[in-house]
């Protein structure tokens, strides 16, 4: 097998495998730019493919005649490496050399194996050998839930480019158009039968210059199997999500504007300080024409010459607006007291606002030495992790699911099963909205849709070992695209690892004093995003008791506003001299697409209530009885929580009755009790974030409905969210509004009303919110009953003696 070898610094390449040979790697006559790939001589007769998988493992995969006749899959299934094979590889294969990657396998022999062009994945940063072929379990066709591969992104871009021969489109996204659910269910229920495999399709958004002054935004759906355009959707009046390159241009033109420079001059800023402009998307407030893009430019000061200095510690009163065509259209000064409004009077910088670095800096390079009392804490898993992955398919304990990723939602989970039983078709964070509560203009323009406007995928962090993730970590990369349609790798955007989670269950028989304890192990799928000043840590926790918990942690730096020394406002907290952190909310919407033991589910509302007392028809002589009432929601609607009634929302399958409880099997939602949107229902904030109106929504599944504030949130005017989707279907005789024993979607709105504390400054300790999904009468007993009992021989805890404790406590404080 011969492949092209490419330099390490290149982003992606295409190579064709042109031959399969046997024997040791050919170091005698390698052609320039090409290497021969083979396996060890011992398997000369069958042929071998050397596979270097992304996680430092090297495998020998037998490539037999038999396997050539069908699928590459069996090869992957039998990847094993014996110590002798490993040694052999270490001896025979040179370590140094360029990393290589192969994105296309077009050899005729392989063509007959997989029946089409398969994907071979890439790794450029791990232990690489050269000459090599890098392949992985993605050698087979992508699973229908897999994100688009680099090859597919290129192919989709080429199909679209061919439509615009006179204009070069600006590719905003090239992402997977997930298969219609009905098609996908048929595929899954038939164990991935090839004849039922849905077509691979891409959803592409482009901006195409029409004239010198106008551009047209449009979406295209492309069938990647047929190489054809399925649909073109003009998006007149809509705006694409935030373009980082465009925002940089906004920042530059703003700072370069002479009027802005004049205003900066008038502020008489401290010598050696640097002005920073932070452009924000405009939250609609009815004060500007929303057919054109407008950017808000907030000004800050970096007092010290360090790029990591916290400029939010010095918010300036200056503010500017920049038009779609990069012109500064307005400059004014912000109100700096409760009674003030925006004005044009020069506002000199008050030098008394300068305060110590220790108060406002978080970066170690600008802080005193950290405490030294914390000793290392290392996660040791002597036998490795308990999960396995096959491409994006994960298996852990009795769980299986598929990991997805896209530019907007970031991490998505698909086809979530426990012990083979279907639970959820898809789980995802579908939107979040961060409205600010300062009523003074222009602050109502601070209202960020961090998914719709920014993108959780495109802003996902490159996660690091030992920092974001402890223990044995599996990373997943994401792929996005450049503006010219090239694949763009987003490395390590999702991590997967196990954690100890305290005790799962325990009982001590008080008569025998025999204790039985099972510790809880959880599997964590985590992604972290940075949206300008803030970080969000999103993690799905899978439990051995068949529960899923979705945890959100908010951290990062408060977005700040200037305030005069000595002044106060009732909608913000003073966190440093002249620095006000405004009240704001973080509203998240978790989209739960259930398939609890099948596709037809219902939403049941159960409440616990006391039995009537002193009622001759009810036996409750001591007044202590209580019972539950249940109702099933019949039509699409928004619902609210009520802890006074212990209102519980259960997703049930009325067609599957638990043999023991004689009730429908189900999963209940453990909501994150939260205050909903505080903005007035007539405000643009409320109209634009309809999901913030209720804590729970139930809708009929629709293949196009993923976003509870609408698909296009940038400068949206409202009327495109969940409430509007429901209202639109009701007009249609309500024929598609029924949600009882139907294919339903449940949306949970939760979050925090964040009235900042001084302790949130200068960087905020994580604020944690958790939503749970837990089986209710789904199994026949505790599903974690068979978890291995905790034993010291296995867990090797270490006894700490009193002397050691004393030694720790006597250490001097730094
Ligand atoms: Cu906050």
UniProtKB/TrEMBL annotation:
User: Which Pfam families does the protein's record reference?
Assistant: Cu_amine_oxid, Cu_amine_oxidN2
Report domain Copper amine oxidase N2-terminal positions. 143-231
Keywords, comma-separated and alphabetical: Copper, Disulfide bond, Metal-binding, Oxidoreductase, TPQ
Write the Enzyme Commission number(s) for this entry: 1.4.3.-
Q: Domain of life of the organism in this record?
A: Eukaryota
Question: Per its UniProt record, what Gene3D superfamilies does this chain match?
Answer: 3.10.450.40, Copper amine oxidase, catalytic domain
Q: Which parts of the sequence carry 2',4',5'-topaquinone?
A: 534
**Record's cofactor remark:** Contains 1 topaquinone per subunit.
Q: Which residues form the Copper amine oxidase catalytic domain?
A: 378-784
Active site location: 450 (proton acceptor), 534 (schiff-base intermediate with substrate)
Which principal EC class is assigned to this enzyme?
oxidoreductase
PTM comment, free text: Topaquinone (TPQ) is generated by copper-dependent autoxidation of a specific tyrosyl residue.
Can you cite a GO biological process for this protein? amine metabolic process
What cofactor does this one take?
Cu cation
User: What's a single GO MF annotation on this record?
Assistant: primary methylamine oxidase activity
Q: Which family does it belong to?
A: Belongs to the copper/topaquinone oxidase family.
Assembly: Homodimer.
Q: Could you tell me what this protein is called?
A: Amine oxidase
């Amino acid at each position: 097998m011969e492949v092209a070898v490419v330099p390490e610094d290149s982003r992606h390449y295409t190579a064709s495998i042109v031959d399969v040979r046997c024997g040791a790697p050919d170091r005698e006559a390698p052609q320039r730019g090409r290497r021969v790939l083979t396996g060890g001589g011992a398997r000369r007769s069958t042929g071998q493919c050397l596979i270097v998988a992304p996680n430092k493992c090297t495998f020998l995969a037998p490539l037999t005649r038999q396997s050539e006749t069908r699928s590459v899959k069996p090869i992957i299934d039998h990847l094993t490496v014996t110590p002798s094979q490993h040694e052999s590889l270490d001896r025979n294969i040179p370590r140094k050399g360029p990393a290589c990657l192969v994105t296309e396998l077009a050899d005729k022999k392989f063509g007959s194996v997989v029946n089409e062009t398969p994907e071979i994945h890439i790794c450029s940063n791990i232990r690489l050998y050269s000459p090599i072929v890098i392949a992985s379990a993605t050698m087979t066709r992508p699973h229908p839930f897999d994100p688009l591969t680099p090859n597919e992104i290129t192919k989709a871009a080429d199909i679209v480019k061919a439509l615009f021969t006179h204009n070069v489109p600006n590719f905003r996204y090239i992402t997977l158009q997930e298969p219609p659910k009905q098609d996908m269910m048929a595929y899954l229920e038939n164990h991935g039968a090839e004849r039922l495999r849905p077509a691979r399709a891409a959803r592409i958004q482009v901006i195409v210059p029409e004239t010198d002054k106008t551009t047209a935004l449009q979406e295209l759906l492309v069938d990647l199997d047929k190489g054809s355009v399925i649909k073109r959707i003009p998006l007149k009046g809509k705006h694409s999500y935030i373009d980082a390159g465009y925002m940089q241009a906004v920042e530059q033109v703003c700072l370069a504007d002479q009027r802005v420079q004049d205003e900066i001059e008038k502020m008489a800023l401290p010598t050696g300080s640097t002005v920073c402009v932070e452009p924000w998307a405009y939250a609609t407030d009815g004060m500007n024409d929303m057919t054109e893009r407008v950017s808000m430019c907030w000004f800050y000061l970096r007092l010290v010459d360090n790029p990591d200095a916290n400029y939010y510690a010095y918010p300036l009163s200056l503010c500017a607006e920049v038009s779609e065509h990069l012109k500064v259209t307005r400059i004014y000064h912000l109100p700096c007291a409760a009674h003030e409004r925006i004005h044009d009077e020069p506002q000199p910088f008050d030098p008394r606002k300068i305060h110590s670095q220790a108060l406002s800096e978080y970066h170690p390079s600008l802080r005193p030495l950290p405490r030294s009392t914390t000793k290392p804490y290392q996660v040791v898993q002597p036998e490795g992790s308990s999960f396995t992955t096959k491409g994006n398919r994960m298996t852990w304990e009795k769980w299986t699911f598929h990991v997805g990723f896209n530019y907007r939602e970031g991490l998505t989970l698909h086809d979530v099963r426990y012990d083979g039983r279907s639970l959820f078709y898809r789980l995802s964070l579908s939107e979040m909205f961060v409205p600010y509560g300062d009523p003074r203009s222009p602050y109502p323009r601070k209202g960020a849709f961090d998914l719709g406007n920014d993108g959780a995928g495109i802003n996902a962090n490159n996660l690091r070992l030992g920092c974001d993730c402890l223990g044995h970590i599996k990373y997943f990369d994401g792929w996005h695209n450049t503006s010219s349609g090239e694949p763009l790798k987003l490395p390590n955007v999702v991590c997967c690892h196990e954690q100890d989670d305290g005790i799962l269950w325990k009982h001590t028989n008080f008569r025998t004093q025999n204790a039985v304890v099972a510790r809880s192990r959880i599997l964590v799928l985590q992604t972290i995003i940075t949206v300008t000043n803030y970080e969000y840590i999103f993690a799905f926790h899978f439990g051995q008791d068949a529960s899923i918990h979705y945890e959100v942690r908010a951290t990062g730096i408060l977005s700040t506003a200037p305030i005069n020394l000595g002044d106060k406002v009732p909608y913000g907290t003073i966190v440093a001299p002249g620095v006000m952190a405004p009240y704001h909310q973080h509203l998240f919407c978790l989209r739960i697409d259930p398939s609890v033991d099948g596709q037809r589910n219902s939403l049941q509302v159960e409440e616990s209530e006391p039995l009537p007392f002193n009622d001759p028809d009810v036996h409750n002589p001591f007044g202590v009885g209580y019972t539950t009432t249940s109702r099933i929601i019949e039509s699409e609607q928004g619902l609210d929580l009520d802890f006074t009634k212990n209102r519980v929302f259960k997703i049930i399958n009325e067609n599957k009755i638990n043999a023991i409880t004689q009730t429908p099997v189900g999963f209940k939602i453990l909501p994150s009790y939260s205050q909903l949107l505080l903005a007035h229902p007539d405000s643009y904030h409320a109209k634009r974030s309809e999901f913030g109106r209720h804590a729970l929504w139930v809708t009929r599944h629709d293949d196009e409905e993923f976003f509870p504030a609408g698909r296009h949130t940038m400068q949206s005017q409202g009327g495109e969210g969940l409430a509007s989707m429901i209202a639109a279907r009701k007009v249609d005789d309500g024929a598609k509004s029924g949600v009882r024993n139907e294919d339903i979607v449940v949306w949970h709105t939760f979050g925090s009303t964040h009235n900042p504390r001084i302790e949130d400054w200068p960087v905020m300790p994580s604020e944690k919110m958790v939503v749970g999904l837990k089986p209710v009468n789904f199994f026949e007993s505790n599903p974690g009953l068979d978890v291995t009992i905790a034993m010291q021989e296995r867990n090797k805890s270490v006894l700490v003696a009193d002397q050691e404790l004393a030694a720790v406590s006597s250490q001097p404080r730094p």
